Amino acid sequence: MGFIDLSKLFSTYIGIDLGTANTLVYVKDRGVVLAEPSVVAVKTSTQKIIAVGGEAKDMLGRTPGNIKAIRPMKDGVIANFEISEAMLRYFIKKAIQTVPWYRQLLHPKVLIAVPTGITEVEHRAVEDSAKRSGAGEVVLVDEPMAAAIGVGLPVSEPSGNMIVDIGGGTTEVAVISLAGIVGSKSERTGGDDFDNAIMQHLRKIHGLLIGELSAEQIKIKIGSAYPVKDDETMDVKGLDITNKIPKTVRISASEIRLALQEPVWKIVEAVKATLDQCPPDLAADLIDRGIMLAGGGAMLAGLDKLLSEETELPVFIAENPLDAVVNGTGVMLEGDNIWLL
User: Fold this and answer.
1) What is residue 299's three-state secondary structure?
2) Alpha-carbon distance 39 to 137, whole Å?
3) pTM for the full model?
4) Could you read off the pLDDT of 175-211 as tens digits, one per residue?
5) Rg of the Cα atoms in the chain
């Protein structure tokens, strides 16, 4: 009779997509249990945390002087250690509450997806932050590998699969074959840069100050990377930069597309650079298999068309692009893949 591994019976296994814009958490046998903005609201005088996640994001640009809404992740890595720890602790604690009491007895084993381009120092920062937030064992996995697994690409086959994961702070591009990354590019450009480009455009051209939430709404409603929405317009409310009084301006989809050109082309160039690294035989596979887009940025209208035109390859958008990475960590944690932790 074999021994029973009690640690597996009593442990909670958690997969985390720790993103610049959003954090998603997967719990083994439970699925995705949490998807919240990576934002923390702090009282400036005492550094006491007021809110985390969605509640804190609603405070962005709307807080009184004694409260500050902070995004502790920047470009896919930890920018504020203390706040990141508090945020991770909150998310891990919330995730553990979804499992039976006997699986809450031990520190959870955590798998975290990170950008391929981060340094060893940034690697250790993520591990240390997770451990101080209540995790036991911590394993880091490359984001593009997790995303490719999460969208169902056959990564273990001896053929080329290309994934482009566009998050809030980074774009991860990789060609994967035989469960390994053959060529990759980590570009510190993402959805946040789209929002910033819109904010700068409105300030420069219309003399209008708007916040992050307003810029995000413009991006979602009329933003595009290709002329697919050019006839649409939108009224935007903000603060007149000269008079410091509220005003409304009407903007068009075509001008927002032009405003987004710089960050969009950084992503296009990252894809081209990765294709240049690709061995000829694997590049040939991509003619049939194409490129898979994941992450929130994949939903920018027309981005798939632009990439297809520039690479002359078919481009597809994942069915649930926002969940690609966290679902990938879930696949790694379920069934026979539990050896990862």
Assistant:
1) helix
2) 25
3) 0.91
4) 999 989 999 999 999 999 999 999 999 999 999 999 9
5) 21
pLDDT at 31: 94
Per the CB < 8 A criterion, the answer to whether 167 and 20 are in contact is yes
* Rounded Cα gap, residues 158 and 53, in angstroms: 40
Rounded to an integer, what distance in angstroms lies between the CA atom of residue 197 and that of residue 202?
9
Residue written as token pair 């997806």: 113
Note the pLDDT tens digit of each residue in 93-114.
999 998 888 777 788 999 999 9
Q: Is the pLDDT of residue 339 over 50?
A: no
Report how far residue 61's alpha carbon sits from residue 68's, in angstroms, rounded to the nearest whole number. 9
Question: Given the structure tokens 């690609």, which residue do they identify?
Answer: 324
Using alpha carbons, select from 335, 323, 325, 320 the residue that is nearest to residue 28.
335
* Half-sphere CA count of 173, side-chain side, radius 13 A: 22
Residue type, 283: A
Mean pLDDT to the nearest integer, 56-73: 81
Question: How many other C-beta atoms can be found within 10 angstroms of the C-beta atom of residue 216?
Answer: 21
What pLDDT shows up at residue 101?
A: 80
Residue among 304, 300, 39 nearest 167 (CA): 300
| Sequential DSSP letters for 265-281 | HHHHHHHHHHHHHS-HH
Nearest to 32 by CA among 91, 115, 89: 91
Yes or no: say if 32 and 98 are a contact pair by the CB < 8 Å rule. Answer: no
Longest dimension (CA), the chain: 81
- For the beta sheet containing 67-70, the strands, ordered from the edge strand earlier in sequence to the opposite edge, are 48-52, 40-43, 67-70
- Kindly state the tokens that stand for 340: 């990862």
Q: What is the spatial distance between Cα 178 and Cα 158, in angstroms, rounded to a whole number?
A: 5
Q: What count of residues does the chain have?
A: 341
Q: Residue for token digits 């209208």? A: 301
Catalogue all structural domains in the chain, each as residue range(s) with its CATH number: 6-35+81-145+324-340 (3.30.420.40), 152-189+264-318 (3.30.420.40), 191-261 (3.90.640.10)
* pLDDT-based confidence at residue 337 (cuts at 50, 70, 90): low
Rounded Cα distance, 32 and 319, in Å: 16
Supply 190's token pair.
């993402």
Q: Using the 8-state DSSP alphabet, how is residue 312 labeled?
A: T
